[in-house]
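pasting for the record
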Amino acid sequence: MVVWAPAKINLYLDVLGPRPDGYHSIETLFAKINLRDRLRLGLLPRGRRDHLSVRGPFGALIPPGPANLALRAARAFKAGFGISRPVFIEIDKRIPVGAGLGGGSSDAAAVLTGLSRLFKLPETAAHVRALKTMALGIGSDVPFFLEKAGFAVGRGRGERLSAFEVGRPFSWAVLVYPGLQVSTKEIYQKLRFPSKKPALTRARHLGRLKKSLECGRLPPGWEGWLHNRLQQIVLSSHPEVAAARDRLLSLGARAVLVSGTGSSVFGLEKTRLKARRIFNRLKPVKNWSVWMLPLGGDLHRH
């Protein structure tokens, strides 16, 4: 069985403060993009152990052992539903690692949904709730990738989701991975919170952005609503990320933002032609991986 695991970018990310459980409360706007890992799942003979293999352009960068989120998802699924049959997972890793694109979380969600189909478990409300509980136990971004919709506002750890679709492409993203991994833990450890509470302006921007995307009508200047509270920390800690951002800006991208905790950076353009011009200038840069992707519409069409 083949399942696909899409990457995401964050069009908006604010960190509100630390939580008692060691995580942080956030407000974010997730957007799935058509950069996907390909997973193959299947059954192994009884008496064997679960097996994970990884290949692909970024396969050498991820752990194949118990720390891998896809393998953790398989084991959580089997424990949760009382299944003993061993399974294999093959990942063709096309999403960069440590890039702020949620590739590991998406792989985990794909395993949960794929194994549900493989073992022919009915998609009842109770089953969906159980999958969401498993997903959150694996990682904060995993519940988003269980959603069928391509967009969602996330609150709490990111698991309190308000998902929605955007019917047609509204922008083109030129996505740059500058060839290095960034540690999410490292970036959050450097985060400091002001003693004074920030104004509500940014939260209003998130609400306006969601409403405009749902309606399919984005007003002029909507790119100014994009935000990443962690961006400056990432840029100051990693000159390679700052170089990618500066290059996108110098080529005239309408809005440029680090995705999540990096290292990926994306720039937006209104038309495919303008995005293609930027893409063509960046594609030859040594050690960079560059993609041109639509935002909105059906992921499988592009």
